[in-house]
Write a structure and sequence with these properties.
The chain has 199 residues and is an alpha/beta fold. 45% of the residues lie in helices and 13% in strands. It has a single domain, classed as 3-Layer(aba) Sandwich (Rossmann fold), CATH 3.40.50.450.
Length: 199
């Protein structure tokens, strides 16, 4: 196994987080379909704030965390790129479908059991690579923000493909499943909401 996969998730200090967000123009907002309602509500607020700041969202159109990120982005009237495994996935109208063959090659390097993935699963994992590297796989995001259970620094579920790719390429990843990360992002949003109300 690649040693970089064992590196711990990024645990942000608030000051470092504010600096990163201020210097960023695009991020991947993704995660599990099983994210709890309180986390989904926070994700909406985070995505709205990032949209106000001018960051472009990349996501995947799935129920749960993906949808919450997109909802917040829309509420903040932000730019978004939603990558679908096939046309009308989850009744979504995004034009970014299907992922190119090169994205499947990258996904195969990140997935631990690619041979057992059927064609549909491969498309799902391939579009996760576009969430990190863009439509032509040559334009990486500045960070990945997500919610998914994690065991021994290994993300569980389909979100793992995007996070594994990002960590291999030293792109910061923030898992809202981690209490310290959740607290840092919650605090950032609270501070920013006060600032916008005072304008």
């Amino acid at each position: 196994m690649d040693e970089t996969l064992k590196s711990p998730p990024t645990i942000p200090l608030l000051s470092e987080l504010r600096t990163l967000v201020s210097a960023s123009t695009k991020y991947a907002g993704i995660g599990s379909r099983q994210a709890p309602p309180a986390v989904l509500a926070l994700i909406v607020e985070i995505a709205k704030n990032l949209a106000f700041r001018g960051l472009t969202l990349r996501s995947g159109g799935a129920p749960g965390a993906d949808t919450a990120f997109e909802t917040g982005c829309d509420q903040g009237r932000g730019e978004k790129e939603i990558f679908l495994p096939w046309k009308a996935f989850n009744n979504h109208a995004s034009p970014f479908d299907p992922p190119p063959e090169q994205a499947e090659w990258i996904a195969a390097l990140c997935h631990p059991n690619w041979r057992n993935c059927n064609a549909a699963a491969r498309k799902l994992h391939a579009r996760n690579c576009q969430q990190v590297y863009g439509v032509n796989l040559d334009d990486p995001v500045h960070f990945v923000l997500f919610w998914a259970p994690e065991k021994d620094h290994s993300v569980q579920g389909g979100t793992a493909t995007a996070v594994t790719l990002a960590r291999r390429m030293n792109i910061p990843t923030f898992n809202l499943w981690q209490p310290d990360t959740l607290k840092a992002w919650s605090t950032l949003v609270r501070i920013e909401k006060r600032k916008y109300r005072s304008c």
